[in-house]
Amino acid sequence: MSEEVNKEDTSPAPSADTSVGTGEESFAKLFEESESRSGRLRPGEKVNATVISISSELVYIDIGGKSEGAVNLSEFLDDDGNVTVKIGDEIQAYYTTTADGVMRLSTLIHGYSPAKLSAIRDAQEAGMAISGEVRREVKGGFEVSVGGVRCFCPYSHIDLKGGREGGVFLGRTFAFRILEFEEEGKNVILSRRLLLEEERKEKIEELKGSLKVGDEVKGRVRSVQKFGAFVELGGVVDALIPVSELSWERVNDPRKVINPGDEVTAKVIGLDWDKNRLTLSLKATQPDPWVGIASRYPVDEQTRGTVVRLESFGAFVNLEPGVDGLIHLSNLGAGRKVNHPKEVLEVGQLVEPYVTDADEANRRISLALQPRFRPEKIPLPALNEVVDGVVEKVMPYGIFVKMPSGLTGLVPNAEMGTPRGTDHSKMFPVGTALQTAVVEVDTAHHRVKLSRKSLVETKEKQEYREYMKAAQNDEDKPSDMGSLGVLLKAKMEEQKNAASQ
Predict the structure, then answer these.
(1) Same domain, 99 and 118
(2) Is residue 462 assigned to a domain?
(3) What is the C-alpha to C-alpha distance for residues 368 and 358, in angstroms, rounded to an integer?
């Protein structure tokens, strides 16, 4: 045995009276046992041993059967260079080879400490997480160092999204769950995703218990699509802001309002934990432009806006950010029939319509290109006044007549002055000129009742009065012969005067 071993060896020296033969016999026997022992060990075989001596380079161990071996001291140095074992410590080592008559062993497998491997194995059995540093990207995943032990984490297990952007993980330390521990630590596979999923479930349960509709939450925009933006809440769950909830204004391109990476504050407007669907609104955190809309857009007042959309039923006009009014198809023609708004308007056109209704509760504004007809502002005709009108509508109970002022009056069937059972729709089709008399004026409801029969009777009475007056005048006139004599006398006087001149 070397001097380094003798320096620490405290075993007694051989007896002086031992015979040479006996010594030779003992030496041969020991050598045979040593050879026999070493022959039974295979490279990589594990043995239990006791530290019996420590030198500046080697640690000598008793492996049993009066056999000794040596392990490099470097395997027992910590990061500060301190020796971590002492004489008498029990260790586990692995036989590697025999060199210069000395059995060489190692506490390392592929450079790993059995103590560290044992900790990893114990952590796996206990279901505990371990900490590891992502050293480099390798085929199929990452090499992770756990206390100096090289482990492997597949791409699919480095995070919840797949981890293909490897650069963001290199040099960082994370907690991992042990998926596999095989071949005495030669194959250790880790998963960070399992821990993230567990953490995600815990945080989701917390959110379920605390989050409610109407709450304002902060999050980071993860992605933007045509239909809206996904916002990550607490790093564990995604919520959707639909494109209609991004702004009070109409949004055609969401990226003009929001972009990935933006930190936003939004209001919760929908929760469906069964389907893990959370819906947020960005515009709900902004002032509502519909508040006070009636005072800003009084009925019958003219306003200004831009045509933003044409539909079969009308045209939408943007009046201010977030406020669109509708010009219904019936309010586009100014008296003429319009089949589609494109016959009158086009998108982008500036118009100055009139407000016909402003409904804040239902978030609706109705518009018209022409001022609204206001019959209550038209003066009512006088009682018994004769008006010339046009048949506007024929109903079973009477005829509606539009008067020159714009008002519409009703002539009941009883006031038509026609025989019972007359078909008025044929006798007085729409558009027929009709003269009537005002027989009733309802100032409370701004209504007028007309009568054709009364007008006919009035005319008859008038004609009778005129006839009687003419007859009376005839009685006061001279007879025809008297009149002729007067004329002849006048003519003769005229001729006499002419002759005298």
Answers:
(1) no
(2) no
(3) 12
Beta strands 433-442; 386-395: pairing state: antiparallel
Last residue of a domain, one of 197, 219, 243: 197
Query: Rounded to whole angstroms, what are the CA distances from 359 to 301, 302, 365?
Result: 15, 16, 6
Neighbouring-strand partners of residue 402: 390, 408
For 251-309, the pLDDT digits (tens) are 889 998 999 999 999 999 999 888 888 999 999 999 999 999 999 999 989 999 999 99
* Spatial CA neighbour of 226 closest among 183, 202, 196, 258: 258
pLDDT in the model for residue 13:
37
For residues 139 and 104, is the Cβ–Cβ distance under 8 A?
A: no
In this structure, are 176 and 270 located in the same domain?
Answer: no
Q: Show the domain range for 179.
A: 114-197
Q: Give a yes or no: residue 478 inside a domain.
A: no
**Pair 68, 102 in one domain:** yes
Beta-carbon contacts of residue 316 (< 8 Å; ≥ 6 apart): 307, 308, 309, 310, 324, 325, 326, 327
Q: How far apart are CA 210 and CA 214, in angstroms?
A: 12
Q: Given strand 305-311, what is the order of strands in its sheet?
A: 350-351, 305-311, 314-320, 323-328, 364-368, 354-359
SS3 413: helix
- Check: CB of residue 317 under 8 Å from CB of residue 351: yes
Q: In 3D, which of 58, 65, 60 has the Cα closest to residue 41?
A: 65
> For residues 36 and 417, what is the distance between their CA atoms, to the nearest angstrom?
143
pLDDT for residue 10? 38
Ranges of the chain whose pLDDT falls below 50: 1-25, 27-28, 30-39, 481-482
pTM of the model: 0.48
Decide which of 285, 316, 340 is a domain's last residue: 285
Number of domain units in the chain:
5
Residue 270, strand partner residues: 279
Quick one: 101 and 118 in the same domain?
Answer: no
Domain assignment present for 481:
no
How far is the C-alpha of 257 from the C-alpha of 228, rounded, in Å? Answer: 10
CATH number, domain containing residue 98: 2.40.50.140
Contacts with 241 (C-beta within 8 Å, 6 or more apart), sequence order: 228, 229, 230, 231, 258, 264, 266, 279, 280, 281, 282
Let me know if residue 469 belongs to a domain.
Answer: no
Residue tagged 């041993």 (tokens) = 49
